[in-house]
UniProtKB/TrEMBL annotation:
Pfam families: Pribosyltran. Catalyzes the transfer of a ribosyl phosphate group from 5-phosphoribose 1-diphosphate to orotate, leading to the formation of orotidine monophosphate (OMP). Orotate binds at T68, R96. Pathway: Pyrimidine metabolism; UMP biosynthesis via de novo pathway; UMP from orotate: step 1/2. This is Orotate phosphoribosyltransferase. 5-phospho-alpha-D-ribose 1-diphosphate binds at R38, K39, K42, E64, D65, V66, V67, T68, S69, G70, G71, Q72.
C-alpha cells in the first residue's frame, strides 16, 4: 500500500476505527507521520478531531480499511477541511465497489485501493 501513497502526502490520517491499524502500519513503513481521526471532535480534554501529527495546513491522505458508500470519508474530509486540511485522496485496503468511488469524486476526493471486490471475486473463482 505504501506505493499507492501520493508523493505530496504530508500526513496519513486513519479514520476511527478500521483505519487506525492500517494508518499505523503505513506510517511505520513510509516514514510519513500519522494522525488518528475521530468521527467527531472530543467535547473534553484536547477537544480535537484528529490526534497525533498536526493536520492543519497539511496535505493529508485519508486512510480507511473498507469503503462501501464513502460516507464516513466524506464526512471526515468535510470536517478536516473546515480546520484547514487539504485532502485530495483517500486510500483503502478494500473498495467494495458499491458507490464509494463515485460519491467521493463528488467531494473532490480520488479513492485509491489495494484491492477491489472484483479483484477478490476473481481470485476466488
Amino acid at each position: 500500500m505504501v506505493e499507492l501513497i501520493p508523493s505530496d502526502t504530508e500526513v496519513l490520517a486513519g479514520l476511527e476505527m478500521g483505519g487506525i491499524p492500517v494508518v499505523t502500519m503505513l506510517s511505520y513503513h513510509s516514514g510519513i507521520p500519522a494522525a488518528y481521526v475521530r468521527k467527531k471532535a472530543k467535547e473534553y480534554g484536547t477537544a480535537r478531531l484528529a490526534e497525533g501529527s498536526e493536520v492543519r495546513g497539511k496535505k493529508v491522505l485519508l486512510v480507511e480499511d473498507v469503503v462501501t458508500s464513502g460516507g464516513q470519508i466524506s464526512i471526515s474530509a468535510h470536517d478536516l477541511r473546515q480546520i484547514g486540511t487539504s485532502i485530495d485522496y483517500a486510500l483503502c485496503v478494500i473498495d467494495r465497489q458499491e458507490g464509494g468511488t463515485e460519491a467521493l469524486k463528488q467531494n473532490q476526493i480520488q479513492l485509491l485501493s489495494l484491492l477491489t471486490r472484483e479483484d477478490i471475486s476473481s481470485a476466488i473463482t
